[in-house]
TrEMBL record:
Annotated Pfam families: ABC1 (PF03109)
Family from the record: Belongs to the protein kinase superfamily. ADCK protein kinase family.
A biological process term (GO) from this entry: ubiquinone biosynthetic process
Protein name, UniProt field: Ubiquinone biosynthesis protein
All copies of domain Protein kinase, residue ranges: 112-433
Record bears the keyword Cell cycle: no
Keywords associated with the record: Ubiquinone
UniProt KW Glycosyltransferase keyword: no
Species, as recorded: Midichloria mitochondrii (strain IricVA)
Entry's Gene Ontology molecular function annotations: ATP binding; protein kinase activity
Matches recorded under InterPro entries: ABC1_dom (IPR004147), Kinase-like_dom_sf (IPR011009), Prot_kinase_dom (IPR000719), UbiB_bact (IPR045308), UbiB_kinase (IPR050154)
Length: 433
């Protein structure tokens, strides 16, 4: 029965793909010879995909959002366009949301709840409210029946994935593995207590840091399908014109943003990995405010040290050590040549580091390194890929805000201090940079 249902849904999916012209676009993509032509068409295709994925359901939206974090699988152009799936998704009627709230929390403890959602994602939407204690809050509510819709949708996604694997033999994409990861992370996201815990942990990690703030959680109202947290007013970090109009110091904001990212990733090993517009604000004190904690990155101690050692070795132009570190970490297969890999690392380092200091991009360096690692049959862990993707976002936002500022030059003192504390005697070598 499920096979018949999925077959029917597949026909509907194929009909949409054909009517939107995607099938013809994919055929044309195979025939285009020039890299520039492929880029232009890929941009067009991925924008179409962004527009039609919401029609297929939450699991397909989640797949797009997941692939937005994996440029190693889909490429930079597709990844950048898929990021737009985070914004402006359809909302549910408030009567449905109010029914959920009335069933799950003491609704009489709220003076008012705004009927118009201020934000909507694939599985939830957010409403502004005020408690009887005059606390202004944001209420995030799972959309009704979303878990059942997601699981039904996931069955179709697996069906499509298996067919794609058989027809096109695209083992490199690891479709089954990707779908399993999407299922696991999405079902966790559907328990809003997990997101509340992530926000609480990030708040605890950053509580003593200057110039950064994470809203507090109202645990008494938070359930598996409702998250209530402090309402914070601010200007979106992406809105450069409003920041300038408010008289804010853009260079100072960029530095604060960069430092808090490094504190999260390298000091705490727990970082906000969903920095799309609306998730980062700047308040009247020029503090960086983080919102929406559904996607968080984790780095264990060994991964933190691995990346720090890699970056340090590149800065020292010690490419043999870069290769050796991959070997020691267990990434490098015995069937490959460590000496050839060291030469590849040299080609990456010299290309990136010979640029003017204000044009050096550490995320570009890591991106090239991970791509090269794939050519040597190395499996780079997903947390490191998520880190590199988030670093790219941090760099991109920083360049957009102030194209004369390079965040890596701004935070040199921080890097030196961190290396000295965490890499011991070898870390002191960074002092000369």
């Amino acid at each position: 029965m499920q096979v018949l249902l999925n077959t029917f849904r597949l026909y509907s999916l194929i009909f949409t793909i054909v009517t939107e012209g995607l099938l013809i676009d994919f055929i044309r993509l195979k025939r285009i010879k020039t890299p520039e032509g492929k880029k232009i068409l890929l941009d067009k295709i991925s924008k179409k995909i962004v527009s039609i994925l919401p029609k297929f359901g939450p699991a397909f939206i989640k797949t797009g959002q997941f692939l937005a974090t994996r440029p190693d699988i889909v490429g930079d152009i597709v990844s950048r366009n898929l990021e737009k799936l985070q914004d402006s998704l359809p909302t549910c009627d408030f009567s449905q949301i109010n029914a959920i709230l009335s069933k799950s929390i003491a609704i009489n403890e709220f003076k008012y709840i705004d009927h118009v959602a201020v934000a909507a994602a694939s599985i939830a939407q957010v409403h502004k409210a005020e408690t009887i204690n005059n606390e202004v809050v944001a209420i995030k509510v799972l959309k009704p029946g979303i878990e059942a819709k997601f699981k039904s949708n996931l069955s179709l996604l697996r069906f499509v994935g298996r067919l794609t694997q058989k027809i096109f033999n695209v083992k490199r994409l690891k479709i089954e593995e990707v779908i399993s990861r999407i299922e696991k992370t999405s079902l966790l996201e559907m328990d809003l207590r997990i997101e509340a815990a992530s926000a609480d942990k990030l708040r605890e990690n950053l509580i003593h840091d200057e110039n950064v703030y994470v809203p507090k959680i109202f645990w008494k109202y938070t359930t598996n399908n409702i998250l209530v947290l402090e309402w914070i007013d601010g200007i979106p970090l992406y809105d450069r014109e409003r920041l300038l109009s408010a008289g804010f110091n853009i260079e100072s904001i960029v530095k604060k943003f960069a430092v808090t990212f490094f504190n999260q990733a390298y000091r705490d090993g727990f970082f906000h990995a969903d920095l799309h517009p609306g998730n980062v604000l700047v308040n009247a004190n020029e503090d960086i405010i983080f919102l929406d904690f559904g996607i968080m990155g984790h780095l264990d101690h060994m991964n933190k040290l691995f990346i720090a050692e890699i970056l340090k070795s590149f800065l020292e132009r010690n490419y043999d050590l870069v290769a050796k570190l991959h070997l020691e970490a267990g990434y490098f297969p015995k069937s490959e040549s460590i000496n050839v890999f060291a030469l590849s690392c040299r080609s990456i380092g010299e290309t990136v580091l010979n640029k003017p200091p204000n044009q050096v991009s550490i995320s570009a360096l890591l991106k090239q390194l991970f791509e090269t690692a794939k050519n040597f049959n190395m499996e780079i862990q997903a947390p490191l890929l998520l880190l590199q993707k988030t670093m790219m976002t941090v760099e991109g936002i920083s360049i957009y805000l102030d194209d004369q500022t390079n965040i890596w030059l701004l935070i040199k003192p921080w890097i030196k201090k961190w290396a000295k504390s965490n890499l011991g005697i070898r870390g002191r070598l960074l002092q000369k940079y």
